[in-house]
Amino acid sequence: MNLGIGAIETCRACPRPCTFCTVRKVQGKKLRPRGIKVFVEGLIRYWKDGVWTYFFTQDNAARDPLWRERCQAMIELQSAGWPRNDFIIQTDVPSYEIPGFVDLMADAGLVEVSIGVEALRAENAKEVNKLHNLRANLRKMVQAYRRRGIAVHLNFIFGFLHDTPLTIAEDVQTIITELEPDLVYFSIKTPLPGSEDHYRMFVEGEWMDSDLNAYDLYATPVSRHPNMSRKEWQEAVHQAWRVFFSTENCIRIMRRVASDRTDVYWRIFRKMGWFKYATDVAEDHPMLAGFFRVRDRKSRRRTFPRMGRLEFWLYNLRENWRTVRGIAKLGLDLTEVWLNTRENDPFGKRPPWYIKYLITKQGEGPIKANWLLTAHCTRLIFTNWVHVLNRPVDF
User: How many Å apart are CA 82 and CA 76, to the nearest integer?
Assistant: First the structure.
C-alpha cells in the first residue's frame, strides 16, 4: 500500500560524540553526503511513483556539507513545475543559529523537524556529551522553526544518573510550560549495542538485560539505576507520555497552533492523534505501535508455552474489546480537543453539513452529536495512517 511517504538517506555519519547513540560507531564520524544529482534523480523517481512526503534519514541534517545545495535543488524543481514535496529532518539544537538554515529549509518544503535535546539539566547533558544543547537556547530554537510554520518534535531521554521520578516529572512540566514543542518523544536511557554506553557497561561488568527484545527504548529499562527501581523508572517515563499527551495539554498545543499556524493545524492534529493513540490505547511508543494487532496463536517464542484455542480466543476477545473501548475514548478526547480549538481553524469555520447541523441545532441530541463528531475526527486522524502490526509477540 502506497501512503505517499518515502525515505531518503541524504548523508551518513555524525561528528557528535553522544555516548548513547550508535551512529558514530556504525557509520563513523566523517560525513559522507549523497551527491546532488543522485539526490534529485531519486526525488523525481519517487514523485513518479506517487511519493510526495519524505523523511531524510540523516542523523543531523544541519551537518550535511551539501544542505544548502540540496535545498536549492528542491526549490529549483518546484520552479520547473514539479510539485512541492514535504519533508522531515533530524537535526541538533544549534541548527537554528546557522545563517539561512531555517528559512532555506522551509522554502524547500520542510514541514517537521525532529531535534535531539535528550537532557534539560546540565549535569545530564554533560553525562552524554550534549553540552551544546544549552537550555537557554531551546526556547529560541523552537520559536525559530515555528515562525516558518514548521512542526517541532523534541526528543528526550530519561534515566540519567541524576534523574529521579520527581526530576522527570519536573522536566516534563518545564517542557510543557517553557519550551512548548508541538510533539515530543520520551525514551528510556538504553545502552544500545554499538553505543559507547553499551561498550563501557560491558567492560565494567555492569548488569544489562540479556533479552535484546527489551531494547526498544520504551517498554522497560534494561539496566539498573542508582536512584530508581526499574519499575519506578518505567512508570516515570510512561507517566511523562501520559501527562504531555493529556487532553488538557493537547488543547493547549492546538490552540497555540490554531492561533499562529492554521495551515498546519490538521497536520499536527493527525500526528497528535496518533501519538495519543499509541500512549493511551496501544500503550506503546508511537514509532512501535500498530493500529490494530493481529495475533497468531502459533507465533510465540519457543520459551513461551502455546495457548489452547479457547484460552487464546478469550484472551484475544478481551484485548480487542479493550482496544475498541480505547479507540472510542480517544475519539471523544480528540473531539474535545477539536471543539476547543476549532475557532481559528479553516475547517472549523466551514465544517461538513452534518457537523454544522449538530453544532448549531442540537437537533439530534448531545450523545448522537458527540458520536458523529467522534467518527468524523477519527476518520480524519487515521486516514493514511492506519497500518497493521503483525509480528510474533509475547502476549
Answer: 9
Half-sphere exposure of 245 (CA within 13 A, CB side): 28
CA distance 345 to 50: 28
Report the alpha-carbon distance of residue 316 to residue 6 in Å, rounded.
33
Q: How far apart (Å, rounded) are the C-alpha atoms in residues 123 and 246? A: 29
Q: In sequence order, which residues have a C-beta less than 8 Å from that of residue 177 and are 6 or more positions away?
A: none
* Average pLDDT along the chain: 84
pLDDT value at residue 202:
95
Q: If we measure between CA atoms, which residue out of 197, 202, 201, 222 comes closest to residue 211?
A: 222
Bigger pLDDT: 69 or 340?
69
pLDDT value for 155: 94
- The radius of gyration computed from the CA coordinates of the chain, to the nearest angstrom, equals 22
223 HSE (CA, 13 A, CB side): 22
Q: How far apart are the first and last CA of the chain?
A: 28
Domain positions in the chain are: 5-244, 278-389
Predicted structure pTM score: 0.83
Identify the residue with better confidence: 394 or 68: 68
CB 10 within 8 A of CB 70: yes
Q: Decide if 61 contacts 13 (C-beta within 8 A).
A: no
Q: Is 353 helix (H, G, I), strand (E, B) or coil?
A: helix
Q: Each residue of 281-319: pLDDT tens digit?
A: 988 888 888 887 888 888 888 888 888 889 999 998 999
Query: Which set of grid coordinates corresponds to residue 45?
Result: 523517481
At 232-258, the pLDDT tens digits run 999 999 999 999 999 999 999 999 888
Instruction: Round to whole Å and give the CA distance between 202 and 25.
Output: 16
Structure confidence at residue 267 (pLDDT): 86
pLDDT at 330 over 50: yes
CATH architecture assignment, domain 5-244: Alpha-Beta Barrel (3.20)
Q: How far apart are CA 85 and CA 54, in angstroms?
A: 8
Residue 30: HSE in the Cβ half-sphere, 13 Å Cα cutoff: 0
Instruction: Give the list of residues 6+ apart from residue 280 with CB closer than 8 angstroms, or none.
Output: 242, 245, 326, 329, 330, 333
Other CB atoms within 10 A of residue 122 CB: 14
The distance between the two most distant Cα atoms of the chain, rounded to a whole number of Å, is: 70
Q: Which residue has the cell 458523529?
A: 372
pLDDT of residue 206: 95
